[in-house]
Amino acid sequence: MTRLILLGALLACSPAARAQDEPAQDWDGRLTAVSGSVTLIELGGDAEGTPAAAGTPLQEGDRIRTGADSSAELALDGESVIQLGPNADFKLENMHRSETLFGLSAGTFLAKIKKLLASQSMQVRTPTAVAAVRGTEFGVEVPSPEESHVGVFDEGKVEVKGSGGVENLIGNQETRVASDGKPAQPYQLQRFARHRAAVRGFRRRLAVLRKGWKRLPPGARLARRKQILEKMRARRLERLQNLKGRAGKRKDGKRAKDERDKMEKFRERIKRERGGQ
């Protein structure tokens, strides 16, 4: 019995056991929903990207673009959720928990982030500002390269930095940071008020994500990512081939019609030359 106890203690202290208990250094980020035209562009990959699919594990360097009337949802560990609105251009700059950095160069970013540990940080960088969060419900919008907006909804705090100063937001406040880099003094939610219902809905959404979330080891994440991306690339290639096929049929049909028109004109000319006979 003593030997069994000692063996159990040794196994519990083994690196494999500790790896299961200790939090991973990087977030387990995944695309959890897509609507409309959403593209995933890999770091160093094809500039055209791959059509995005729900369930795809994400990794550092990934860039996500949404088209008009499109949206994408991302989750971190099944405990935090991010929503990208139409015409968004978003990048996972750094996925390390100690210094997470997201980039938003266009569009709307809404999030409910679980409270971070003291050793963790998370920032969203735009062309004119950096928003630092500790765990909150907040939003960031970039309508143009010269202007950014940051807002906090019902809970949390956000520090907004520009090249010209710093402002701290609390619940129901927002600010604007123009190209001069000076954040406006915080004011009551205006621009972000229309997103309040969506953000409140994140609470129910997170309950669903937590229930179905299963932690994947790194190897399984990479395998699933590869499988999904290859499948989506094959679908894109098939669509392109179908479009080319339809274009070719239209071209052949137009060519045949032009030949028929030419022949008909030739017959009409011959008929006129023969005096209508």
Describe what you observe in this structure.
- There is one protein chain.
- By secondary structure, the chain is an alpha+beta fold.
- The chain has a domain of 193 residues: Sandwich (Jelly Rolls), CATH 2.60.120.1440.
- It contains four helices and 16 strands.
- It has a 16-stranded mixed β-sheet that branches.
- Strand 13 and strand 14 form a beta hairpin.
- The chain is elongated, with a radius of gyration of 27 Å.
- About 7% of the residues have low confidence.
List the helices and strands and how they pair.
Layout lengths: L1 H11 L2 H7 L7 E7 L2 E4 L8 E2 L11 E4 L4 E6 L3 E5 L4 E6 L5 E13 L9 E4 L4 E4 L3 E8 L2 E6 L5 E5 L2 E5 L3 E6 L8 E2 L7 H17 L5 H56 L4
Parallel strand pairs: 8-9
Antiparallel strand pairs: 1-5, 2-3, 2-4, 4-7, 5-6, 6-8, 7-8, 8-11, 9-10, 10-13, 11-12, 12-15, 13-14, 15-16
Residue share in β-strands: 25-35%
Q: What is the share of helical residues?
A: 25-40%
Question: Could you describe the largest sheet, including whether it forms a barrel?
Answer: 16 strands, mixed
* N- and C-termini, Cα separation: 116 Å
CATH architecture of the domain at 23-215: Sandwich
Name the overall outline: elongated
Give the helix tally: 4
| Sequence stretches where pLDDT stays below 50 over 5 or more residues | 4-23
Radius of gyration equals 27 Å
Based on secondary structure, the structural category is: alpha+beta
Q: Let me know the number of strands.
A: 16
Mean pLDDT: 88
CATH fold description of the domain at 23-215 = Jelly Rolls
